[in-house]
Write a structure and sequence with these properties.
There is one protein chain. About 70% of the residues lie in helices and about 0% in strands. It has helices spanning about 1-10, 20-30, 35-50, 55-65, 70-80, 85-95, 100-120, 130. The protein is flat, with a radius of gyration of 16 Å.
């Protein structure tokens, strides 16, 4: 894959990568269905400290789902310490594309209600994603 070859050349020549590099490479992996390369990039993103970036997280979820590993994307979503509209929309797309429409509706309704409720009450920490998912949701 040309993108990964250029990435390796970039690193060999002393250029450092950032979240936009990881994002671009994840898009390339998604296009070719390269789950193995995508998992390696996920580990590399964690090492770089960019895996929690909303763009990288969304791209990882997208890559996992489009490469046939919906459960990995779902697990990543569950482990995130934040939730926003972009990530919720990403998971909604994952569920819709995998035929799990009811799962996405339930997730969306529960998350949006609880996040809104906790934030309005001044309990922002309780509005974190892991507190918004029902028991057994993974």
């Amino acid at each position: 894959m040309e993108a990964l070859a250029l990435f390796n050349m970039m690193r060999e020549n002393g250029f450092s990568e950032d979240f936009s590099t990881v994002f671009s490479l994840l898009c390339a992996c998604t296009c070719i269905g390269g789950l193995g390369h995508g998992k390696q990039l996920h580990a590399h993103a964690c090492k770089l400290g960019v895996s929690k970036d909303v763009i990288v997280s969304t791209s990882l979820i997208d890559m996992y789902s489009k490469c046939g590993s919906v459960d990995d994307g779902r697990q990543l979503f569950r482990e995130l310490e934040f939730c926003d509209t972009i990530l919720l929309n990403s998971m909604i797309n994952v569920y819709c594309n995998s035929g799990k429409v009811q799962d996405h509706l339930a997730l969306f309704n529960i998350c949006t209600f609880l996040i809104d409720f906790y934030c309005k009450c001044g309990c922002v920490d309780l509005g974190r994603l892991e507190n918004c998912l029902p028991d057994g949701e993974s």
